[in-house]
C-alpha cells in the first residue's frame, strides 16, 4: 500500500491499519480481502499492487516482491524457472486467478508468454506469437489474433471472417489451447465476467474513453445501438439491445455492468441479468475520476474512489452504495 494511505489508516485506527488488497490491473480484478495489521512505517512495501488471498499474499514494486505472513511483510526472491536467475522485476502485469499468481511476458513484440508462479519460480504455462487483444476469465485466458483492432483506429473490414481473425482461449489450469468461434466483428472491446466472454462490437474509428476499470467521467460512453455479443460455445449470440442511451461497460468477477451518466454531475451503474438490466444504482461522488475501481469480494460488489476524500471504499447493499469505514 502507498505510504500516504498507511498514514491515513493510522489516523483512523490507532496503532493499526486496514490493509486493503485489490488488483489495480486494467486486465481485471483479482479479488479483495481484508486484514488488520500493525503499521510498519518504512518496513511496509511502497507498492500499488497487492495480489493473493488468505493462503498467500504478494506485493510487487520496482525492487521486487514482498510476502505478507499474517503479521508483517518480508522480501521474497522469485526466479525465472527457465534460466534459474532471480527476477527482481516482472516482465509484465501480474494477476491472480483461482488461487494462483500469473504474469504476462510481452517484452518481445513477436512473442507472448503466460507465466504461472510455482512456489517461488515463474514457469511458462503458454507461449504464442503476437496477439491483438486479451481478456482474463475465471479459469481461461481469451485472446484474439490476426488483425482484431481493440483500439478502434481506421480499420475497415466488411467481412471479418476473411481477414484471418481468430479467437482462442487458454486454460489457466493446464495451459491447453482451444480455438473459439470466429469473432462477429473486427473491432471492439472484449469483456470477461467469470468465464462468460462478451464483445462490444464498436465500429471502426470508434475512439473514446472506456469504462473498463479505471473510470473517467465523460459526457457520453457510446450509443446503445452498438451490438453486444456473448460467446456461447461454438457461436456468438447477439444480446438484446440494452435499455441505456449512453454507456460504457466493465466487469466484476461474475457480472457485466453498464456505467452511464444519470445527470450532469452523477453517474449510475446497472447489472446485466438474464432478463435485462437491473435498476440503476447511483455512484457516490468522487473528486478523483481517474483512480476508481470495481471489484467483487465474498459475493459483495465493492467500489473504491482512489486515495482522495474521507470515504475510500463503498459496498453495494440493498440497491445502494454505502461507505465502509474502520473498524471492520
Report on this structure.
This protein is mainly beta and 328 residues long. The chain is 3% helix and 41% strand. It contains one helix and 28 strands. A five-stranded mixed beta sheet has the order 7-11-10-9-8, with no helix packed on it. β8 (94-97) and β9 form a beta hairpin. It starts with a helix and ends in a 5-residue tail after the last strand. Residues 1-42 and 206-220 have low confidence and may be disordered.
Largest sheet: 5 strands, mixed
List low-pLDDT spans.
1-42, 206-220
Helix content: under 10%
Query: What is the rounded Rg?
Result: 20 Å
How large is the share of residues in beta strands?
Answer: 35-45%
SSE series: HEEEEEEEEEEEEEEEEEEEEEEEEEEEE
Global shape: globular
**Separation of termini?**
18 Å
How are the strands ordered across the major sheet?
7-11-10-9-8
Features:
328 residues, five-stranded mixed beta sheet, 1 helix, five-stranded antiparallel beta sheet, mainly beta
Mind sketching the topology for me?
Layout lengths: L2 H10 L3 E6 L11 E6 L10 E4 L4 E5 L2 E5 L4 E4 L2 E2 L13 E4 L2 E6 L6 E7 L2 E8 L4 E4 L3 E6 L20 E6 L5 E3 L9 E5 L2 E5 L27 E5 L2 E4 L9 E4 L4 E6 L5 E7 L2 E2 L3 E2 L10 E5 L2 E5 L8 E5 L2 E4 L5
Parallel strand pairs: 7-11
Antiparallel strand pairs: 1-2, 3-4, 4-5, 5-6, 8-9, 9-10, 10-11, 12-13, 13-14, 14-15, 16-17, 17-18, 18-19, 20-21, 21-22, 22-23, 22-24, 25-26, 26-27, 27-28
Amino acid at each position: 500500500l502507498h505510504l500516504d494511505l498507511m498514514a491515513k489508516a493510522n489516523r483512523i485506527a490507532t496503532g493499526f491499519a486496514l490493509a486493503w488488497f485489490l488488483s489495480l490491473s486494467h486486465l481485471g480484478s483479482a479479488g479483495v480481502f481484508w486484514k488488520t495489521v500493525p503499521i510498519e512505517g518504512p518496513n511496509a512495501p511502497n507498492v500499488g499492487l497487492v495480489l493473493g488471498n488468505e493462503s498467500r499474499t504478494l506485493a510487487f514494486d520496482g525492487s521486487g516482491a514482498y510476502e505478507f505472513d499474517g503479521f508483517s511483510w518480508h522480501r521474497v526472491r522469485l526466479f525465472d524457472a527457465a534460466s534459474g536467475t532471480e527476477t527482481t522485476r516482472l516482465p509484465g502485469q501480474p494477476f491472480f486467478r483461482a488461487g494462483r499468481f500469473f504474469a504476462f511476458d510481452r517484452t518481445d513484440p513477436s512473442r507472448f508468454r503466460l507465466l504461472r508462479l510455482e512456489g517461488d519460480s515463474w514457469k511458462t504455462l503458454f507461449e504464442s506469437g503476437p496477439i491483438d487483444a486479451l481478456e482474463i476469465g475465471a479459469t481461461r485466458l481469451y485472446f484474439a489474433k490476426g488483425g482484431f483492432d481493440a483500439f478502434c483506429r481506421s480499420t475497415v473490414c466488411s467481412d471479418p471472417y476473411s481477414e484471418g481473425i481468430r479467437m482462442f482461449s487458454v486454460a489457466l489450469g493446464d495451459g491447453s489451447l482451444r480455438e473459439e468461434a470466429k469473432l462477429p466483428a473486427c473491432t471492439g472491446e472484449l469483456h470477461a465476467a467469470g468465464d462468460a466472454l462478451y464483445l462490444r462490437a464498436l465500429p471502426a474509428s470508434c475512439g473514446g474513453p472506456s469504462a473498463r476499470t479505471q473510470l473517467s467521467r465523460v459526457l457520453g460512453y457510446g450509443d446503445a445501438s452498438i451490438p453486444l455479443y456473448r460467446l456461447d460455445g461454438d457461436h456468438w449470440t447477439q444480446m438484446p439491445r440494452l435499455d441505456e442511451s449512453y454507456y460504457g461497460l466493465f466487469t466484476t468477477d461474475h457480472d457485466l455492468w453498464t456505467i452511464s451518466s444519470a445527470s450532469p454531475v452523477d453517474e449510475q451503474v446497472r447489472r446485466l441479468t438474464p432478463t435485462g438490466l437491473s435498476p440503476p444504482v447511483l455512484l457516490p461522488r468522487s473528486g478523483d475520476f481517474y483512480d476508481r475501481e470495481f471489484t467483487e469480494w465474498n459475493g459483495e460488489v465493492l467500489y473504491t474512489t482512489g486515495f482522495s476524500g474521507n470515504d475510500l471504499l463503498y459496498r453495494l447493499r440493498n440497491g445502494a452504495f454505502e461507505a465502509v469505514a474502520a473498524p471492520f
